[in-house]
Amino acid sequence: MRKPKITIIGGGTGIPVILNSLRHEEADITAIVTVADDGGSSGALRNALQLTPPGDLRNVLVAMSDMPKFYEEIFQYRFEQSDGALAGHPLGNLIIAGISEMQGSTYNAMRILSKFFHVTGKIYPSSEKALTLHAIFQDGCEVVGESQIAKHKGMIDRVYVTNTYDQEIPKASRKVVEEIMESDMVVLGPGSLFTSILPNLVIPEIGEALCQTKAQVAYVCNIMTQYGETERFTDADHVRVLNRHLGERFIDTVLVNIEKVPKDYMDRNQFDEYLVQVEHDFAGLKKEVPKVVSANFLRLENGGAFHNGDSVTEELLNLIRVQQ
Asked: Which family does the UniProt entry place this protein in (predicted)?
């Protein structure tokens, strides 16, 4: 039988959890990764070289590679804060940035690195140019830059992206639209709603492809609300925002975790951006999506609440089998 073709869209630390589990299954995997990060090492490198930020791509590359643990530790090594101009930069970010400059684009760099690290599947930046994320808040204030959004108090109404270094309309990377249109399933998230998932979807070509594709579109809802983004959000609120940004109910299935995070479990020093567990609104979800899958998708580790990649992957593959 033909391998199911699954495309994962997002960024941050969310989608690598799913990709790492999915690469062990019989599936044709594509990752489409946000390029709107303007903070930390990624922001510094993109400003210096005017290239797409490498951080989210680095994490996805590691998740989809069979590189030995020692190679991963080298690739993920972050220079000490006392290391001058290199302070805070992961070695992998420097490698991606260097090859991107050498090859003329991050798109080409990821093709080379995918072969070098024996990646299972394909990795594409959502755009071949760095993007700037804009957030319009309900109070009418506009905040520019992903790293600045959480600093503004208030509720976000909508987001959009612009090319950072020219006035052209943001465009999807080569192959991205084709991958979405040819997929059996497109998975959104998990990840920060406004800063990891939507920066990809509001690229016009990607949004249009998601509304037109015959693939089943699944959204993996976050477990925790996020400071400065989704405070007091229910699971239905997350889906409502996604549908509203694309102007139609394009999501077919939403996966929600129903396992409780133990009280006082979260390490607030390490995970200070996450607030409380996302509350459920199943009546609201039924108005937004045809199908809701609720199960125990929770993994507790090192004082944080994460998705269990194996459990999510198993459910996604079950959804594809039913569809076939």
From this structure: Belongs to the gluconeogenesis factor family.
Q: Would you call 248 exposed, middle or buried from its count of C-beta atoms within 10 A (0-12, 13-18, 19+)? A: exposed
Phi, psi of 86 (to 5 degrees): -90, -5
- CB distance 253 to 319 below 8 Å: yes
Is the pLDDT at 302 greater than 80? The verdict is yes
Chain centroid, CA 110 distance in Å: 17
Q: Which residue has the tokens 């033909």?
A: 2
Q: Tell the residue number behind the tokens 């699944």, with chain if given.
A: 218
Nearest-CA neighbor of 19 among 114, 122, 98? Answer: 122
What is the pLDDT at residue 102? 96
**Position of tokens 């999506």?**
289
For 139-174, what is each residue's pLDDT tens digit?
A: 999 999 999 998 998 999 999 999 999 999 999 999
Mean pLDDT over 36-52 rounds to 95
Domains of the chain in start order, with CATH, are 5-36+124-323 (3.40.50.10680)
Contact 246, 209 (CB under 8 A): no
User: Cα(9)–Cα(191) distance, rounded to whole angstroms?
Assistant: 10
Mean pLDDT of 105-130: 96
Element (H, E) at 111: helix 106-116
Q: Are 30 and 9 in contact (CB under 8 A)?
A: no
Residues 44, 50: Cα–Cα separation, whole Å: 10
Residue 270 clears pLDDT 90, i.e. is over it: no
Residue 142's pLDDT is: 97
